[in-house]
Amino acid sequence: MSSLTPLTFPEDHRESTQSRSAFPFSPIDANLSTSPSLNTNRMQQLESMLKEVQGRAEIVEKEAYEKAYLAGEKAGMELGRKRGEQILESLQETLKETETSLVSIQQSFAEAAMDVAKHIAEAIVGETIKADQNSLLNIAKQASDQLPDNTGLRIAISPDDYSSFQRLLEDEGSMLALKRDATVKSGTCRVITNQQDILIDPIAAVGDYLNTLRPVLLDASAPDKDAQ
Predict the structure, then answer these.
(1) pLDDT tens digits for 183-219?
(2) Based on the number of CB atoms within 10 Å of its own CB, is 148 exposed (0-12), middle (13-18) or buried (19 or more)?
(3) How far is CA 32 from CA 21, 25, 28, 38, 91, in A?
(4) Contacts with 164 (C-beta within 8 Å, 6 or more apart), sequence order
(5) Do 198 and 143 meet the contact criterion of CB atoms below 8 Å apart?
(6) What pTM was computed for the model?
Protein backbone atom coordinates (compact mmCIF):
# COMPACT_ATOMS: atom_id res chain seq x y z
CA MET A 1 0.00 0.00 0.00
CA SER A 2 1.39 3.31 -1.06
CA SER A 3 1.99 6.11 1.49
CA LEU A 4 -0.02 9.35 1.48
CA THR A 5 1.81 12.52 0.37
CA PRO A 6 0.63 15.64 2.21
CA LEU A 7 -0.70 18.57 0.17
CA THR A 8 1.40 21.75 0.05
CA PHE A 9 0.18 25.35 -0.80
CA PRO A 10 2.36 28.13 -2.22
CA GLU A 11 3.33 30.76 0.28
CA ASP A 12 1.18 33.95 0.13
CA HIS A 13 3.59 36.70 -0.81
CA ARG A 14 1.27 39.54 0.49
CA GLU A 15 0.90 37.89 3.84
CA SER A 16 4.58 37.38 4.18
CA THR A 17 5.18 41.02 3.23
CA GLN A 18 2.56 42.26 5.65
CA SER A 19 3.89 40.12 8.42
CA ARG A 20 7.30 41.59 7.85
CA SER A 21 6.16 45.24 7.84
CA ALA A 22 7.18 47.20 10.88
CA PHE A 23 4.48 48.47 13.23
CA PRO A 24 2.79 50.97 13.12
CA PHE A 25 3.23 51.45 9.37
CA SER A 26 0.89 49.64 7.07
CA PRO A 27 2.08 48.34 3.75
CA ILE A 28 1.46 50.35 0.59
CA ASP A 29 -0.55 48.76 -2.07
CA ALA A 30 1.82 48.46 -4.95
CA ASN A 31 -0.99 48.46 -7.43
CA LEU A 32 -2.41 51.74 -6.12
CA SER A 33 0.93 53.55 -5.91
CA THR A 34 1.74 52.78 -9.45
CA SER A 35 -1.69 53.62 -10.95
CA PRO A 36 -1.18 56.08 -13.89
CA SER A 37 -4.74 57.44 -13.80
CA LEU A 38 -4.46 58.40 -10.13
CA ASN A 39 -1.18 60.27 -10.68
CA THR A 40 -2.65 62.15 -13.63
CA ASN A 41 -5.65 63.32 -11.61
CA ARG A 42 -3.43 64.48 -8.81
CA MET A 43 -1.26 66.50 -11.22
CA GLN A 44 -4.31 68.09 -12.80
CA GLN A 45 -5.64 69.08 -9.39
CA LEU A 46 -2.31 70.60 -8.43
CA GLU A 47 -2.09 72.53 -11.71
CA SER A 48 -5.66 73.80 -11.24
CA MET A 49 -4.89 74.92 -7.69
CA LEU A 50 -1.68 76.61 -8.87
CA LYS A 51 -3.54 78.50 -11.61
CA GLU A 52 -6.21 79.58 -9.15
CA VAL A 53 -3.58 80.83 -6.70
CA GLN A 54 -1.77 82.65 -9.50
CA GLY A 55 -5.02 84.23 -10.67
CA ARG A 56 -5.82 85.44 -7.17
CA ALA A 57 -2.27 86.78 -6.79
CA GLU A 58 -2.61 88.72 -10.04
CA ILE A 59 -5.93 90.20 -8.89
CA VAL A 60 -4.47 91.20 -5.53
CA GLU A 61 -1.40 92.67 -7.25
CA LYS A 62 -3.59 94.65 -9.68
CA GLU A 63 -5.80 95.98 -6.88
CA ALA A 64 -2.73 96.94 -4.85
CA TYR A 65 -1.22 98.70 -7.89
CA GLU A 66 -4.45 100.60 -8.60
CA LYS A 67 -4.77 101.67 -4.97
CA ALA A 68 -1.13 102.76 -4.88
CA TYR A 69 -1.57 104.64 -8.18
CA LEU A 70 -4.70 106.41 -6.96
CA ALA A 71 -3.00 107.28 -3.68
CA GLY A 72 0.05 108.59 -5.53
CA GLU A 73 -2.11 110.53 -7.97
CA LYS A 74 -4.05 112.09 -5.11
CA ALA A 75 -0.84 112.95 -3.26
CA GLY A 76 0.61 114.42 -6.45
CA MET A 77 -2.47 116.53 -7.05
CA GLU A 78 -2.39 117.78 -3.46
CA LEU A 79 1.30 118.60 -3.78
CA GLY A 80 0.64 120.40 -7.07
CA ARG A 81 -2.22 122.38 -5.51
CA LYS A 82 -0.06 123.47 -2.59
CA ARG A 83 2.77 124.36 -4.95
CA GLY A 84 0.35 126.37 -7.09
CA GLU A 85 -0.90 128.23 -4.02
CA GLN A 86 2.69 129.04 -3.03
CA ILE A 87 3.45 130.35 -6.52
CA LEU A 88 0.26 132.44 -6.50
CA GLU A 89 1.13 133.92 -3.11
CA SER A 90 4.64 134.69 -4.36
CA LEU A 91 3.25 136.41 -7.46
CA GLN A 92 0.81 138.45 -5.37
CA GLU A 93 3.63 139.52 -3.06
CA THR A 94 5.78 140.45 -6.05
CA LEU A 95 2.88 142.42 -7.51
CA LYS A 96 2.45 144.35 -4.26
CA GLU A 97 6.17 145.10 -4.12
CA THR A 98 6.05 146.24 -7.75
CA GLU A 99 3.10 148.52 -7.04
CA THR A 100 4.94 149.98 -4.05
CA SER A 101 8.04 150.51 -6.18
CA LEU A 102 5.97 152.19 -8.90
CA VAL A 103 4.40 154.53 -6.36
CA SER A 104 7.83 155.34 -4.96
CA ILE A 105 9.22 155.94 -8.45
CA GLN A 106 6.26 158.11 -9.36
CA GLN A 107 6.69 160.12 -6.18
CA SER A 108 10.41 160.51 -6.88
CA PHE A 109 9.70 161.73 -10.41
CA ALA A 110 7.17 164.23 -9.08
CA GLU A 111 9.64 165.55 -6.53
CA ALA A 112 12.36 165.74 -9.20
CA ALA A 113 9.99 167.62 -11.50
CA MET A 114 9.26 170.09 -8.69
CA ASP A 115 12.98 170.62 -8.11
CA VAL A 116 13.56 171.19 -11.81
CA ALA A 117 10.62 173.59 -12.01
CA LYS A 118 11.94 175.51 -9.02
CA HIS A 119 15.41 175.71 -10.52
CA ILE A 120 14.05 176.91 -13.87
CA ALA A 121 11.79 179.51 -12.23
CA GLU A 122 14.64 180.85 -10.11
CA ALA A 123 16.91 181.00 -13.15
CA ILE A 124 14.31 182.89 -15.18
CA VAL A 125 13.68 185.41 -12.42
CA GLY A 126 17.40 185.84 -11.83
CA GLU A 127 18.09 186.46 -15.52
CA THR A 128 15.17 188.88 -15.70
CA ILE A 129 16.39 190.91 -12.74
CA LYS A 130 19.92 190.90 -14.10
CA ALA A 131 18.81 192.05 -17.56
CA ASP A 132 16.31 194.62 -16.29
CA GLN A 133 17.08 196.02 -12.86
CA ASN A 134 14.16 198.39 -13.22
CA SER A 135 11.94 195.38 -12.35
CA LEU A 136 13.70 195.04 -8.98
CA LEU A 137 13.28 198.78 -8.37
CA ASN A 138 9.58 198.55 -9.19
CA ILE A 139 9.16 195.70 -6.68
CA ALA A 140 10.92 197.79 -4.04
CA LYS A 141 8.60 200.73 -4.76
CA GLN A 142 5.50 198.53 -4.51
CA ALA A 143 6.70 197.18 -1.18
CA SER A 144 7.38 200.68 0.17
CA ASP A 145 3.95 201.90 -0.95
CA GLN A 146 2.29 199.18 1.14
CA LEU A 147 4.09 200.18 4.34
CA PRO A 148 1.89 202.02 6.85
CA ASP A 149 4.73 204.39 7.79
CA ASN A 150 7.34 205.54 5.26
CA THR A 151 9.25 207.72 7.68
CA GLY A 152 13.00 207.45 6.99
CA LEU A 153 12.42 205.40 3.84
CA ARG A 154 15.57 204.31 2.04
CA ILE A 155 16.66 201.41 -0.14
CA ALA A 156 19.82 199.45 0.63
CA ILE A 157 21.52 198.22 -2.55
CA SER A 158 24.49 195.98 -3.29
CA PRO A 159 27.53 198.04 -4.29
CA ASP A 160 27.46 196.19 -7.63
CA ASP A 161 23.92 197.44 -8.36
CA TYR A 162 24.17 200.91 -6.82
CA SER A 163 25.13 202.84 -9.96
CA SER A 164 22.38 201.20 -12.02
CA PHE A 165 19.75 201.99 -9.41
CA GLN A 166 20.97 205.59 -9.07
CA ARG A 167 20.72 206.11 -12.83
CA LEU A 168 17.18 204.69 -12.88
CA LEU A 169 16.07 207.03 -10.07
CA GLU A 170 17.63 210.03 -11.77
CA ASP A 171 15.83 209.16 -15.04
CA GLU A 172 12.56 209.04 -13.17
CA GLY A 173 13.30 212.17 -11.17
CA SER A 174 12.66 210.19 -8.00
CA MET A 175 13.93 211.48 -4.67
CA LEU A 176 14.06 207.95 -3.19
CA ALA A 177 17.18 207.58 -1.06
CA LEU A 178 19.69 204.84 -1.87
CA LYS A 179 22.22 203.27 0.44
CA ARG A 180 25.16 201.03 -0.37
CA ASP A 181 25.19 197.86 1.74
CA ALA A 182 27.85 195.21 1.29
CA THR A 183 25.67 192.65 3.09
CA VAL A 184 23.04 192.87 0.34
CA LYS A 185 23.52 190.42 -2.56
CA SER A 186 23.34 191.58 -6.15
CA GLY A 187 19.84 191.17 -7.53
CA THR A 188 18.26 191.96 -4.16
CA CYS A 189 17.59 195.05 -2.05
CA ARG A 190 16.22 196.08 1.33
CA VAL A 191 13.43 198.54 1.96
CA ILE A 192 14.16 200.26 5.25
CA THR A 193 12.09 202.65 7.36
CA ASN A 194 12.30 203.77 10.94
CA GLN A 195 9.91 200.94 11.82
CA GLN A 196 10.68 198.11 9.36
CA ASP A 197 13.41 196.43 7.35
CA ILE A 198 12.14 194.32 4.42
CA LEU A 199 14.35 192.15 2.21
CA ILE A 200 13.36 192.08 -1.46
CA ASP A 201 14.71 188.85 -3.00
CA PRO A 202 12.65 187.81 -6.04
CA ILE A 203 14.56 184.55 -6.55
CA ALA A 204 14.06 183.42 -2.95
CA ALA A 205 10.42 184.51 -3.14
CA VAL A 206 9.83 182.21 -6.14
CA GLY A 207 11.51 179.31 -4.29
CA ASP A 208 9.47 179.92 -1.14
CA TYR A 209 6.27 180.08 -3.16
CA LEU A 210 6.99 176.78 -4.92
CA ASN A 211 7.94 175.16 -1.61
CA THR A 212 4.55 176.22 -0.29
CA LEU A 213 2.83 174.66 -3.30
CA ARG A 214 4.98 171.50 -3.24
CA PRO A 215 2.82 169.39 -0.84
CA VAL A 216 -0.34 170.26 -2.76
CA LEU A 217 1.22 169.51 -6.14
CA LEU A 218 2.81 166.27 -4.97
CA ASP A 219 -0.44 165.10 -3.40
CA ALA A 220 -2.27 165.86 -6.64
CA SER A 221 0.27 163.81 -8.62
CA ALA A 222 0.12 160.85 -6.20
CA PRO A 223 -1.85 157.77 -7.40
CA ASP A 224 -5.37 157.35 -6.14
CA LYS A 225 -5.20 154.80 -3.30
CA ASP A 226 -8.87 153.85 -3.73
CA ALA A 227 -8.21 152.97 -7.36
CA GLN A 228 -5.47 150.48 -6.44
Answers:
(1) 999 989 999 999 889 999 998 888 888 888 888 777 7
(2) exposed
(3) 18, 16, 8, 8, 85
(4) 133
(5) yes
(6) 0.49
